[in-house]
Amino acid sequence: MTQPLVILATASYDHTIRFWEAKSGRCYRTIQYPDSQVNRLEITPHKRFLAAAGNPHIRLFDINSSSPQPVMSYDSHTSNVMAVGFQCDGNWMYSGSEDGTVRIWDLRAPGCQREYESRAAVNTVVLHPNQTELISGDQNGNIRVWDLTANSCSCELVPEVDTAVRSLTVMWDGSLVVAANNRGTCYVWRLLRGTQTMTNFEPLHKLQAHNGYILKCLLSPEYLATASSDHTVKIWNVDGFTLDKTLTGHQRWVWDCVFSVDGAYLITASSDTTARLWSLSTGEDIKIYQGHHKATICCALHDGAEPSS
Question: Is the pTM of this model over 0.90?
Answer without folding.
Answer: yes
